[in-house]
Amino acid sequence: MKKSQSAKPHRTANETPAADPKTESPPTVDETMPVASPLSVVETAIYVDDLDAAEDFYQRVLGLRVVGKVAHRHVFFQVGESDVLLAFNPVTTLTGDTPHGATGPGHFALGIEMQALHAWRQRLRTLGVAIEAEVEWPAGGKSIYFRDPAGNSVELVTPGVWRLPSGW
What we know:
Elements: E1 43-47, H1 51-60, E2 65-70, E3 74-79, E4 83-88, E5 107-111, H2 117-126, E6 131-136, E7 142-147, E8 153-157
Parallel strand pairs: 1-4, 5-8
Antiparallel strand pairs: 2-3, 3-4, 6-7, 7-8
């Protein structure tokens, strides 16, 4: 070999050169391949500074059952037969195996039957929960808005608001 030539590594016939991670393209995805849509929102997360106040509010005011709890980190509530409301301490959930978090108040809606709207309005007033707004939606359905102790906007909504096949 002459000095001006560089030596190339020897490869066998079945060996392929190693991919350069700087120039390698990500794997392609067939975006036309049909994939089933998600069936529902199973969990909704809110962030609260006082887990004890959240537990009291969601149990006493809304009648939700606690299904999970870790001191200073979270308290989880069952909503209906298939949904879970997750109340997290935003400081302690920024670390761990699945870190996440948010700051500031959030919003979510809980479905109620139209016949129960008046009873819920009375319950909130009796328990000293200030109603911020009541809305009659153009598509049908009504909503009552109020705040939890952390400032999250909670909405009680009756069927018809979204014109969904489920009734919501």
